[in-house]
Amino acid sequence: MAIDLFNTLSGTVEPLAPEQANELRMYCCGPTVYDYGHIGNFRTFLHVDVLRRVARLQGMKLKHVMNITDVDDKIIRNAAAANMPISEYTAKFERAFFEDMEALGVERPEIVPHATESIPDMVSLIQTLAKEDIAYRADDGSWYFRIAKFPDYGKLSKKDFEGIEDGARVDVDEYEKDSARDFALWKAEKNGEASWQTDLGTGRPGWHIECSAMAMKHLGPTFDLHAGGEDLMFPHHENEIAQSESATHKPFARHWFHVRFLLVEGKKMSKSEGNFFTLRDLLLKGYRASAIRFLLLSVPYRHQMNFTFEGLTESANAIDRLRTFAERMRTAIFSGEENSELAALIAEKQQAFDAALATDLNTAEARAAMFDVVRAANSAADQNKVSAENAKAILVFLQRFDSVFDVLTDRDQKITKAALDWAEKEGRIGEAAEGLVEAAGLSDNEIQKLVDERTLAKKQRNFARADAIRNELAEKGVLIEDSKDGVRWKRK
RNA sequence: GGCGCGGUACCCAAGUGGUAAGGGAGAGGUCUGCAAAACCUUUAUGCGUCGGUUCGAUUCCGACCCGCGCCUCCA
Question: CATH number of the domain at A4-259, out of 3.40.50.620, 3.40.50.720, 3.10.180.10, 3.40.50.2300?
Answer without folding.
Answer: 3.40.50.620
